[in-house]
Amino acid sequence: MKSKNYLLTTMLILTFFQFNLFLFASENSTEYLVEIGNSGITREDLDTRLSKIPQMYRSQYQTMESQIKLLENMAIEEAFYLKALEMKIEDRPLIQEIIQNTVIPYYAQEYLKREVTDKAAISEKELSDYYNENKEKFRVKSSTDIKYLRISDEGLVDTIIQEYADNNDFDALVEKYSNHASSKNKKGEIRNIKGEGYIPLIGKDPELEKRILEADVAIFNGPITTESGIHFFIVTQLKPEYIRPLDEIREEITASLLPQKEKELNDKKQAELKEKYNVVFDNELLVSVNFDDSLSYIDIMDKHIINSKSPVLKLTVADYIDFLSQITSQQAAGLKNPDNNTQYWQSVIDNRLLYIDSQTKKYKSEIDNMFEVKHARKSVLIRTAYKETVIDLIEITDDDVNNYYNENLEKYETKTERSVQLFAFETEKIAKRSLKAAAKALKKNNFDELDKIITESALPNYKSTIDKVFNNGVIPGIGKDDELSQIIWNTEVGNLSEITRNTKNEFVFVRILSETPGSHIPLSEVKNSILDIVKREKQKEAFEQKKEELFAEYKITIFSERLKTSLSAEELFELAEESQLKKRFKNAVDYYNQIIDVYKNNKDDYKALFMKAFIYAEELNNPDEAVTLFQQVLQFPTGDLHESAEYMIKLVTEGEENILISE
Fold first, then answer.
1. Going by C-beta distance under 8 Å and a sequence separation of 6 or more, which residues neighbour residue 515?
2. SS3 447
3. Residue 372, Cβ density class (10 Å: 0-12 exposed, 13-18 middle, ≥19 buried)
4. How far apart (Å, rounded) are the C-alpha atoms in residues 420 and 510?
5. What is the pLDDT of residues 499-552, one digit of tens each?
6. How confident is the model over 64-73, as pLDDT tens digits?
7. How far is CA 205 from CA 156, 202, 351, 573, in A?
8. C-alpha span between 633 and 639 (Å, rounded)
9. Are the C-beta atoms of residues 182 and 198 closer than 8 Å to each other?
């Protein structure tokens, strides 16, 4: 049924695998990192996989640990792919539809590149015409550059004038006297003052700006006193107004015109294809379908919202209703907006037209063999095999849910909580007097008097009533305070507590207003969340079991010890230092481990071992491991880190104070 075409790309989405970057195992290497029968995965395959990771995330996969994990995932993916082949999943018509939906964007993108983007070009005449018609856009106003000095002390004016008269060294004056940090950091240079009411680095100062624009080159100007200070300056350059030449801005204009040219070519191509494939889009019919009212479309189920001589583009009302029933409620809500709905289906038409026509091109086979297209096809088979051999076989019974609930009751209990009235005072004397008055008022059930005590005597920076106080040492709105928490929970409900000091050394007491006993949340209220938890646990268990079965069935063995770094020692040191700066200390240790394992030259491994020990001592709070590693450093031939290693052993085992005393 055509309706499935639009949704099948999302029907089998699973959370376990990251399939966006799937690697095809190679058979062209003499050594496999993963053996799969007589074939396997090589270092070249791993590097190919890494190269497909977006640049912004690639650094996360430079540690040996992360590459081993990636290698394991690749082996798992290959195992499920082999199972998919064995199950002949690809032969199913429904799977073929899913694959078609999955690859459409890749064909459309490549077709668009070859037929539109690569052919879009701005001619010399178009460049010249645009330039001549828009010269004002390229006009550069006249501007002034200056050397600038600002002071605020009038007593320095004569000194500055005299020193400049003596040596003509304005730069020295800036360095010595300027109190304007922004310009001083640039040695007094301020450029491109254009008379637009704003001086770069300085801001708005009309009088100063006027004097700058009227000044001649190389003349000492000042003092000029305005609201912002006392100013001195020398004009270093006057740049006249001019229009930038075409040769200078050729690339800039091209970049500006190219998107519009590409859009024009794309629109033209889409129009040609719609005519070629007789595409009719009935937008009125589309927006008339009320998904919430089945009676509104019961008689038009067979009518076409999109019609074409290509079956890939046909969409009936029935297909549309089927599609809406399978997407998320959030997605469906978005499509209830008529403009969004029209735009979405227009983009579907555009993409599918490009895909359909790409099948008629000579370069179709090139697209077929693109990494991304092969990956898309293969990932559908893997996801399906995983779903059918793992997910679909999971059964969750009421006993599973009940057992989890009973074994984890502490997760579903509400803790006992109290509401209290807080009285806080600056001195103990006031606190004692107030406690006595509060006790008298409480005895008479005079709650207005209690409120009056807080209003008239207590410190004002606290809420008088605090709710949801748990027996955990933390007071809402106040923070950690074990003493206050203790008197709250040692006082009976309805009573006043004794006086204690809080963490701010204020004198406080409380009245316990009420207590709500803890209880367990009924199973019925948390059943759905427990179902999700149990499902994930069973899924993980079933996956591990299936993985072991498939590894045995297809003779898959991972040789992570064969994985060697392709980075130099210098590159690894740089990555380790970068990780330390970002406080990713475990990553740094992994980089140092790679150096230790690969570069055994008593130099790189020596330094890496010391740095690894240092991280354990200073960052990972593991003194025992640190001492062991520092002792290994001392086993190397004597080097410049031996003394530091000996010091660090003493520091870790004896502490800094004891070292200083002994010295």
1. 416, 417, 418, 419, 493
2. helix
3. middle
4. 6
5. 999 988 899 999 999 999 999 999 999 999 999 999 999 999 999 999 999 999
6. 888 889 999 9
7. 22, 8, 56, 51
8. 9
9. no
